[in-house]
Amino acid sequence: MVRAVRWISWPLCLLVFWAGGTRACLADGSAKITGGVEPAYTFCLSASGCSNLVRTQLRLQYKPIARRKFSLRIRLLRAYQLTMLDDKDDGSSEEQQSSRFEPPFDVADVKLRFSEPNGRDHLELRLGYAYQHSDPDAVDGYHTGYLSGDYYFGAPIPTGWGGLSRRFDILLRMSGNQYATVNRSYEEFGQLVPTYTLPLNGDGSTRMYGSYAREMRFAGSNAQRTPSNRFEIGVTRDPTRWLEFYGRLAMFGTRGVPGASRIVVGADITI
Q1: Would you give per-residue pLDDT tens digits along the chain (271 residues)?
Q2: Is the Cα torsion angle 217, 40, 231, 150 positive or negative in sign?
């Protein structure tokens, strides 16, 4: 079990215990617990390595610290996925669409966010652990430990729901995957993602972004490759503080390996 578990468990426990002892430091004197649901639908634009699917994420978030310059959030998340299989070669038209439930995906992580005196996000650190349950008919589950840092800079516009809607940021993420399949070795990845976000309206509640992700493999077999490049553009709309609609176009590709492109649309509802 897992190099990834060992890597993530002790720092995560220490942060949770430290957070539990800091109630006196809360901005409003009480902890904040919120929940959320995020349904989304993915449309495939290419047949290679892509399936249409419905995905719903259920989350519980606890903020033991919520200050203007610093906040700490602990998140638990479970995602359910329904894959829409389209067999256009066999059966009548009623049989050409079928679907299959995938095993759930669990996440536990801690996020530290540091902000400037004017409320602008400056640095975000995240430490987490995720587990993809195995399919009953196949041993294909895996454990993931990850650590990421997202640094924001540039001249922002002070608009939007409690944030600054124009920003440029660079995300660096390190992760390790331990697979249940015995013939697939432990893998380590690094990901570098620059993103630029700008407002589309006066109050910043509608925003557009573009990003490029470069993934690098540091250890593990190349027998099963993941995309090493991703180009993405998206639009986000926040009609209220508790509701967000989004849509994005993502294109994946690696030299010599067929890529995939997809459109994702969804909503994020905070309860």
Answers
A1: 344 444 444 444 444 444 444 443 444 445 699 999 999 999 999 867 788 999 999 999 999 988 878 899 999 999 999 998 655 555 444 444 567 888 999 999 999 999 887 667 789 999 999 999 998 777 788 999 999 999 988 766 666 655 667 889 999 999 999 988 878 888 999 999 999 998 888 778 899 999 999 998 888 876 666 778 999 999 999 998 899 999 999 998 877 677 789 999 999 999 9
A2: negative
Q: Which residue has the tokens 């890529």?
A: 259
Distance CA 142, CA 178 (A): 5
Q: Which domain holds residue 28?
A: 3-270
Number of domains in the chain: 1
We report the CATH number of the domain holding residue 211 as 2.40.160.40
